[in-house]
Design a protein that fits this description.
Layout: E1 7-12, H1 37-48, E2 53-56, H2 71-76, H3 85-95, E3 100-106, H4 112-125, E4 132-135, H5 140-143, H6 154-172, E5 180-183, E6 188-190, E7 200-201, E8 206-207, E9 223-225, H7 230-239, E10 242-245, H8 251-267, E11 276-281, E12 284-285, H9 289-305, H10 307-318, H11 340-346, H12 351-358, E13 367-368, H13 370-384, E14 388-392, H14 398-414, H15 427-431
Parallel strand pairs: 1-2, 1-14, 2-3, 3-4, 4-9, 9-10, 10-11, 11-14, 12-13
Antiparallel strand pairs: 5-6, 7-8
The structure holds flavin mononucleotide.
Residues 11, 57-59, 104, 106, 133, 135, 137-138, 226-229, 232, 244-246, 280, 339-341, 390 line the site of flavin mononucleotide.
């Protein structure tokens, strides 16, 4: 292994939903997207490539921000429909042995006890391969499905999440390591003196505890977080074991982001090396540079041909209806109770230019042969001092899985940049391996 190996994970963008149903490589079973087969193929590919974990994105509403209607979202299957990510996890776990599985579960929707119990159960049945993608929900449509009119103010959502994470981690650790005795003669299944109610009474939650299940293999499961705003970063620095971010789209901003969260972690008494910061990357690899560039161009043209689809995505993230703006006029100052860090990057740009760069998601263009893209990744990690990449492609298909897992990653492995075999059993141990 090289001096600075890095981690790889995969962001299952748009969650447990239909993928690439309009593309040339959608497969014969595209209409059966609700069956786990394609996702199992991805999980197996990722495990061949020795990646750390798969995050399954989620949200729980049918969006209607764009033009005040759900039509555009349904027309493109854009961010909807989505099935429950926690149900997909056991299927992926059965098909793999080492891969970490990280469902998205929102602090705005789950009661803490229910979430703690679900994650504890998943960690038991996967023998320690679960992580929690901890998000605060930003879209009012989701709030309206859970008895509220709107989401709480942005920063307060993170106050709630702080208390939520505190309570959930206490519940995960309420049974001591040796609480289960399994002594048939006494008899003593579990020792009551080693199981502790949590008696939590905070500003937002009240819970007696303990969990009605033993400590799971990881106990406190790894927490994944994507806070981009200052308040979000403060939350991530406190709780996250792995942070996922676009890093601002340039090598300099990636470096600054990572240094910022590491400094915040140190200020909170944490070891910054225990937090793995992974940067979003959307590679397009092909046999020649020209072939890869052609594909990137075709994707961009497809995005521009369906401006409404891209604009509806921006609307969903921010709660702002982008159908109201002229495509070629710079956006005025706007505020959002949704994704503040995304909106901050768009102000002053025209919607058309945002859509053009939105199609490639991040500022860094990972397009080319496996050798070229692996070299870029190597250079960037050396410069940033980073912990790795979070690969993603919203419309991935089986061809894409193979290109990345059997083309790009083996090139990274040949360079000694990523692992060739799993050294450990649990997600946390694999994350902390380097
Ligand atoms: C890679 C990545 C994955 C994310 N996954 C989800 C998700 O599955 N569900 C969700 O509600 N938000 C998700 N988010 C949004 C973040 O939780 C967060 O709200 C966003 O990055 C904005 O940061 P802020 O809340 O600090 O402004 C994701 C963000 C990123 C960068």
């Amino acid at each position: 292994m090289a001096k600075h190996p890095f981690h790889l994970a995969w962001f299952l963008s748009q969650g447990f939903g239909p993928k690439s149903w309009r593309s040339a490589w959608s497969g014969a079973d595209a209409g059966r997207w609700m069956m786990p087969d394609l996702f199992i193929d991805l999980a197996k590919g990722m495990e061949r490539a020795c990646m750390d974990y798969m995050i399954i994105e989620d949200s729980s509403m049918l969006p209607y921000t764009y033009q005040g209607s759900h039509d555009t979202y349904l027309k493109y299957a854009a961010s909807t429909p989505k099935l429950d990510p926690a149900v997909l996890v056991p299927y992926l776990a059965q098909a793999t042995k080492h891969l970490g599985l990280v469902p998205t579960l929102s602090t705005s929707e789950y009661p803490p006890f229910l979430l703690a119990r679900l994650v504890n159960t998943l960690d038991h049945v996967t023998e320690g391969r679960i992580g929690w993608n901890c998000v605060t929900s930003s879209n009012d449509g989701a709030a309206q499905n859970y008895g509220n009119d709107a989401q709480r103010p942005h920063d307060e959502r993170y106050d709630v999440a702080d208390e939520f994470a505190d309570l959930v981690t206490k519940l995960w650790e309420a049974w001591e390591h040796d609480a289960v005795v399994l002594d048939r003669d006494r008899p003593m299944f579990a020792d009551g003196s080693k199981v502790h109610p949590v008696f939590h009474e905070g500003k937002y939650f009240k819970c007696r505890g303990p969990l009605n299940a033993p400590r799971s293999p990881q106990g406190r499961v790894p927490i994944c977080q994507a806070g981009g705003s200052p308040r979000g970063q403060a939350f991530a620095s406190r709780w996250a074991d792995t942070i996922i971010t676009d890093g601002g789209g340039s090598v300099a901003s990636m470096k600054a982001y990572r240094e910022e969260v590491r400094q915040r972690a140190v200020a909170l008494g944490r070891d910054p090396d225990s937090i793995k910061v992974l940067f979003l990357a959307y590679p397009i690899v092909d046999t020649t540079m020209a072939a890869a560039r052609e594909r990137r161009l075709l994707e961009r043209q497809a995005a521009e041909a369906h401006m409404d689809m891209q604009l509806s995505g921006m609307s969903r993230l921010t709660g702002i209806d982008f159908s109201k703006f002229d495509l070629d006029m710079p956006l005025p100052e706007l505020t959002t109770n949704g994704h503040q860090s995304s909106l901050a990057k768009w102000i002053g740009k025209t919607p058309r230019s945002i859509v053009q760069s939105y199609a490639s998601k991040a500022g860094i263009d990972f397009t080319g042969t496996s050798d070229h893209v692996a070299g870029m990744m190597q250079d960037i990690m050396e410069e940033v001092g980073g912990d790795g990449f979070l690969l993603f492609n919203g419309y991935f298909d089986r061809r894409y899985i193979m290109e990345v897992c059997d083309g790009l990653v083996p090139e990274l492995q040949r360079r000694g940049l990523t692992r060739k075999a799993y050294a450990h059993k649990t997600l946390r141990e694999n994350l902390l391996e380097f």
